[in-house]
Design goal:
The chain is α/β, with parallel strands linked by helices. It is built from nine helices and nine strands.
């Protein structure tokens, strides 16, 4: 069954726009980004056959922007939260502008936590009422699996995203909410231009629609979906071990909480 309404952050380009493209017609859309003109175009594009599409122009690096999106999401009854908005910047940490470093943390980390915490209780309650699972997709990155000099803050925020999604998935294992950490590899988007990286330096890239489709297909089936074809093969055993460690840790910590 299709979800009732999906909130997509960073919806105006790249993987976010691809999620809007590939979600089923039966799923309403709440699209947010900073480009008002692009949001208006997308609303016209997707508002067909009675489909409800709401757009919110907001800067998620700000408290005000996040509050606007949360209010719209609560009104829309969102049951699929796609935390896709993200910023990256290539360069030595000490040379990058302080406001750029801060914005990466605000969008990639703080926004993820604030939006998910605000919307999750309502999503759980509605899922229990309807009997249909809700979903949370956290768009991390293969950059989250290792430290990356000259992309230090970006990689660190993506590691946070990955660990947050894994922990949340374990906490919600017995609830009607599916959680996925989506970890794209090099993808054909404008990210590289905005981050100051040359696409030509990437040995191979995949289409953003493919990333979005794999994310939707993996939701409810596993906790981590890696789209990079080489890392999918090489890293498969490590993901199995990671899942086992996560399960054991969740069991131990859950018992400790009960015994307090």
């Amino acid at each position: 069954m299709a979800h009732h309404c999906a909130l997509i952050t960073g919806a105006t380009s790249g993987i976010g726009a691809s999620f809007a493209d590939v979600l089923p017609q039966a799923t309403g859309l709440l699209l947010t980004g900073r480009d008002e003109a692009r949001l208006a175009t997308m609303k016209e594009q997707f508002s067909v056959n009675g489909r409800k599409v709401v757009t919110v122009a907001a800067d998620l690096a700000t408290v005000e922007g996040r509050e606007c999106v949360i209010s719209a999401a609560e009104s829309a009854g969102v049951d699929l939260l796609i935390n896709n908005a993200g910023l990256g910047c290539y360069g030595a940490f000490a040379s990058n502008a302080p406001e750029t470093e801060r914005a990466m943390v605000e969008v990639n980390v703080v926004t993820l936590v604030v939006l998910t915490r605000a919307l999750l209780p309502g999503m759980i309650a509605r899922a229990k009422e309807t009997g249909q699972n809700a979903g949370v997709i956290v768009v991390s990155s293969i950059a989250g699996f290792q430290a990356l000099p000259y992309l230090g803050t970006y990689a660190a925020t993506k590691a946070f995203d990955l660990l947050f999604a894994e922990a949340l998935a374990s906490e919600l294992a017995d609830s009607p909410v599916d959680v996925l950490a989506l970890c794209p590899g090099a993808t054909r988007t404008n990210f590289f231009n905005r981050a100051g990286l040359a696409k030509s330096a990437m040995p191979y890239m995949i289409d953003s629609d493919t990333v979005a489709r794999r994310g939707l297909a993996a939701l409810g089936k596993r906790t981590i979906e890696v789209t990079d074809p080489i890392r999918r093969i090489i890293g498969a055993p490590a993901l199995v071990v990671r899942a086992l460690k996560r399960a054991v840790t969740a069991m131990v910590l859950r018992r400790m909480g009960r015994n307090r």
